[in-house]
UniProtKB/TrEMBL annotation:
Belongs to the D-isomer specific 2-hydroxyacid dehydrogenase family. This is D-3-phosphoglycerate dehydrogenase. It is an enzyme of class 1 (oxidoreductase). It holds the Pfam family 2-Hacid_dh_C. It comes from the Eukaryota. It comes from Forsythia ovata. Its EC number is 1.1.1.95. NCBIfam families: PGDH.
């Protein structure tokens, strides 16, 4: 038998060798091997997979990585740098590798994980986005996925400021004009930044760094971010405001929000209409947060004076893209992270994460969950769903501009504390609180780290009930303290936003909002109405939804007393139009309402 001394010499080996053998102990002592018993009809065989002579792990680097990162990897493992692999070549090599590092150009598909035969332990994405990695397949195969979310921060912030200043002084247009043989000083008169209002939309790492630099340029900086702690913003002289206040008062708007269903095309016709005439917009976040057709119209009408864009909905954009070709648009080809320093930083960050994961350390930048024992998952499955949906409901009830900092979770159970592990439930509540307005993937691995990073303190309390411990939980309650609510009745008597739910027949149900008891299935989405309790209310609201063919799955009314104030909870399968929601709000007995998307 010819044994390979390193993974690189096995580059084109189609599969591990199957050897009929009865005496394998001496072989195991000499080489790093795994012996797997199996039956192929008769007789019994064992399969030997050769790892390496020195039993070091093997890391495949499939795209260019900075030298500093490669050196870190080589100090720990055998490193195979093979670039531009076809999908077939990647699937062939992956069975010989313990870890894989990619950038954005390599698709790590389900086929890759299946081809690894269970050997692949870690996938490292050198950058932030992980849309090129099949997370579900990775989790199913017990493979940890890590990324490098922090190394690009300064580079992206600097590029945002570069675009801001270049746009204000027409640098790109004036440069093209001079190179065309023209000298048009009067055409390219710019605007000053000193004293102007900059709205930073998304006050995470990059947004914070942009704000610091803009303050140094003499700008007045405001910001919108539901999770940004007010004290952190105040520490650098930034005022947190609501979304509408930010876009309506700004002279310049700089986008730093993730692309999520909630932020997709958030700058649209409706929101452009709320802006000052002559506003200027910078985007170094994600192209999809802007409705590009709406931006072209806003530029043509003069609502938006100029835009400076590093990202687009489709990249690269078509050559005839009206936005790119617009004379008042400065465009760059997604250069936010493109500095020599950032590329080296990403290489080091992802190398440290991958090496740490291979050593068995808990990865703070993990973006998928470890495998959960099937018996635990089966029992907790409906409560996992309930936990996430309660988190999503609670955070959507927070009014814009309020920073979420303190969350209390209460579990009511007849089981002893030692018999109920709430880590997964707490992680799913954290997921529900953070993911709707963030690009972070929250799971059991990174939930506590992610919450701490955002200044979110989650405390837990257990209520021990009498009765049978057959069911893990009786109910779960989520409270958010020190915030305002967009739905006043969600505020409990003690002053917190409060939602409570339980599992009935395997289905998560919302059973309390504020001080009002309700009973509505957490399937689809929910409309909450605070109303005067009187006959015909259910019929009026149901008729409006029925006219638009919106199916009502559940309806429940909780009230203080007959003919007094009540809360109606309506479960809907489809999202009602804005016009329908407006009509519901115009019903005379309806005092307040909110639509919550689950």
């Amino acid at each position: 038998m010819a044994a390979a001394a390193s993974s690189t010499s096995l580059k084109h080996s189609p599969s591990p060798t199957t050897i009929p053998c009865m005496r394998h102990r001496s072989l195991s002592a000499t080489f790093g091997v795994t012996a797997i018993s199996f039956r192929r009809s008769e007789p019994r065989y064992r399969r030997f997979v050769v790892l390496s002579m020195d039993a070091k792990p093997t890391i495949l680097v499939a795209e260019k990585l900075g030298e500093a990162g490669v050196k870190l990897l080589k100090d720990f493992a055998n490193v195979d740098c093979s670039y531009n692999l076809s999908p077939e070549e990647l699937c062939t090599k992956i069975s010989l590798c313990d870890a894989l590092i990619v950038r954005s150009g390599t698709k790590v598909s389900r086929e890759v994980f299946e081809s690894s035969g269970g050997r692949l332990k870690v996938v490292g994405r050198a950058g932030v986005g992980i849309d090129n990695v099949d997370l579900a397949a990775a989790t199913e195969h017990g493979c940890l996925v890590v990324n490098a979310p922090t190394a690009n921060t300064v580079a992206a912030a600097e590029h945002g400021i570069a675009l801001l200043t270049a746009m204000a002084r027409n640098i790109a247009q004036a440069d093209a004009s001079v190179k065309a043989g023209k000298w048009q000083r009067s055409k390219y008169v710019g605007v000053s930044l000193v004293g102007k209002i900059l709205a930073v939309m998304g006050f995470g790492k990059v947004g914070t760094e942009v704000a610091r630099r803009a303050k140094g340029l003499g700008m007045h900086v405001i910001a919108h971010d539901p999770y940004a702690p007010a004290d952190r913003a105040r520490a650098i002289g930034v005022e947190l405001v609501s979304f509408d206040e930010a876009i309506s008062s700004a002279d310049f708007i700089s986008l730093h929000m993730p692309l999520t269903p909630a932020t997709s095309k958030i700058l649209n016709d409706e929101n452009f209409a709320k802006m000052k005439k002559g506003v200027r917009i910078v985007n170094v976040a994600r192209g999809g947060v802007i409705d590009e057709d709406a931006l072209v119209k806003a530029l043509d009408s003069g609502i938006v004076a100029q835009a400076a864009l590093d990202v687009f909905t489709e990249e690269p954009p078509p050559k005839d893209n009206k936005l790119v070709q617009h004379e008042n648009v400065t465009a760059t080809p997604h250069l936010g992270a493109s500095t020599m320093e950032a590329q080296e930083g990403v290489a080091i960050e992802i190398a440290e994460a991958v090496v740490g994961a291979l050593k068995g350390e808990l990865a703070a930048t993990a973006v998928n969950a470890p495998m959960v024992p099937s018996e635990v998952l089966i029992e907790l499955k409906p409560f996992v769903s309930l936990s996430e949906k309660l988190g999503r409901l609670a955070v959507q009830l927070v009014a814009g501009g309020s920073g979420v900092k303190s969350v209390k979770v209460t579990y009511a159970s007849a089981r002893a504390p030692d018999d109920l592990d709430t880590r997964l439930l707490r992680a799913m509540i954290t997921k529900g609180l953070i993911e709707p307005i963030s690009s972070v993937f929250v799971n059991l691995v990174n939930a506590d780290f992610t919450a701490k990073q955002r200044g979110l303190r989650i405390s837990e309390e257990r209520i021990v009930l009498d009765g049978s411990p057959e069911s893990p939980l009786e109910f779960i309650q989520v409270q958010i303290a020190n915030v305002e609510s967009k739905f006043a009745s969600a505020i409990s008597d003690s002053g917190e936003i409060k939602v409570e739910g339980r599992v009935k027949d395997g289905i998560p149900h919302l059973t309390r909002v504020g001080s009002f008891e309700v009973d509505v299935s957490l399937e689809g989405s929910i409309i909450l109405c605070r109303q005067v309790d009187q006959p015909g209310m259910i019929g009026k609201v149901g008729s409006i939804l029925g006219e638009e063919n919106v199916n009502v799955s559940f309806m429940s009314v909780g009230r203080i007393a007959p003919r007094k104030q009540a809360v109606m909870a309506i479960g809907v399968d489809e999202e009602p139009s804005k016009e329908s929601l407006k009509r519901i709000g115009e019903i005379s007995a309806v005092e307040d309402f909110v639509y919550l998307n689950l």
